[in-house]
């Protein structure tokens, strides 16, 4: 299959959902699915599904639908979930522990090779087969192991100096759970933000509005 | 100030960021800020900022900027962060613990009144001043305490039956960390999804693409 050079960001953001869903079908032994069925189960329109899949080369056959396994593999490969990019995690509180455990056992796209914290109570703890290392050792560890991405689960008060250090070491990709706007400060970075607080406040707004109107 | 009846979802999703930022300024004793300064610090355009604030009645004065404290209070009130809606959390693993702790100590918009889990190892543990209760007691607890919102930190395999129960009890608002599409199944619910996996896969894609092109 020929790979198209450009897939737009909205399509990319839908790919993980397709991937998840198709993998589920694949595991259950479903071999083919039509765009109509897929769209109904996922809450998109059928034409949206066809349009999305066309972006990276199609796979559908009129009247036969999509081959589930092949499509799943292809989307997985586009997403790069089979690459095992080396990454480190900074901040091993509850959130850091949850993320570390999840990545180590459920996701092949990143290979978690180091977990760091600056609290004496946390350093030395075992999380997902890794021992938490002291934050003071980040620079040396990175120069020896060259991770590509860092997961930031540190408090807002610490994140600025942590990113300064990591960027200086050469890490340019971040999964950021803090509120620090990395991409605004360092435009050449790749950043995915998870702003739990913003999501919670948005929910709070919607619940409040709903109460007012009911 | 007159409140406009409708604020669009994109504006609402930006409000938490404004709120966070303005509260930070307010705490530091900053009393006024211009749309230009705000926009530079937040990475929006000044006209975007003015447009957003106009949606709920303005506050800016030509040449004087915005009153930080007043604007912060107003946005907080629109978001409903001062309402303390009662909520429960299901699933007290690492993620559940992180969320429970965060909500209890950092967010006034929701009042966490119950934490539930079905694992014997977890039930009875103390998280953020609450003792984890057995999942079997959810129905009774809800009929006595009438929470408005549920936070779902349960595994994907358990979430469908948990939502069935909660919806049946009358809970219509969810902060959902699982992949189950609640709103597709129950269109009259208010749902904020946090799809950590999708965010991670999107990052994986961007890192992969970046490697290919460099």
From TrEMBL, chains A, B:
Q: How does it assemble?
A: Homodimer.
Q: What gene is this protein a product of?
A: rex
Entry's localization field: Cytoplasm
Annotated residues that bind NAD(+) are located at: 91-96
Q: Which residues bind DNA?
A: 17-56
Which organism was this protein described from? Hominenteromicrobium mulieris
Give an example GO molecular function: DNA binding
Tell me which PANTHER family the record gives: REDOX-SENSING TRANSCRIPTIONAL REPRESSOR REX (PTHR35786), REDOX-SENSING TRANSCRIPTIONAL REPRESSOR REX 1 (PTHR35786:SF1)
Gene3D superfamilies xrefs? NAD(P)-binding Rossmann-like Domain, Winged helix-like DNA-binding domain superfamily/Winged helix DNA-binding domain
Q: What is this protein called?
A: Redox-sensing transcriptional repressor Rex
Q: Write out the GO cellular component annotations.
A: cytoplasm
- The superkingdom listed in its UniProt entry is Bacteria
């Amino acid at each position: 299959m020929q790979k198209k050079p450009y897939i737009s960001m909205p399509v990319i953001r839908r790919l993980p959902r397709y991937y998840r869903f198709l993998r589920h079908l694949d595991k259950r032994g479903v071999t083919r699915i039509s765009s109509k069925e897929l769209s109904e189960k996922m809450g998109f329109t059928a034409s949206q599904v066809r349009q999305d899949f066309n972006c990276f080369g199609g796979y559908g056959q009129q009247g036969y639908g999509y081959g589930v396994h092949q499509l799943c593999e292809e989307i997985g490969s586009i997403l790069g979930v089979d690459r095992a990019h080396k990454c480190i995690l900074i901040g091993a509180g509850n959130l850091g522990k949850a993320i570390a455990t999840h990545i180590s056992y459920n996701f092949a796209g990143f290979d978690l090779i180091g977990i760091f914290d600056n609290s004496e109570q946390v350093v030395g703890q075992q999380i997902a087969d890794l021992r938490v290392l002291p934050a003071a050792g980040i620079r040396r560890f990175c120069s020896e192991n060259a991770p590509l991405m860092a997961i930031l689960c540190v408090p807002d008060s610490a994140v600025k100096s942590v990113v300064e250090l990591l960027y200086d070491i050469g890490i340019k990709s971040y999964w950021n759970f803090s509120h620090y706007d990395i991409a605004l400060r360092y435009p050449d970075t790749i950043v995915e933000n998870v702003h739990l607080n913003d999501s919670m406040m948005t929910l709070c707004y919607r619940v409040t509005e709903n109460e007012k109107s009911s």
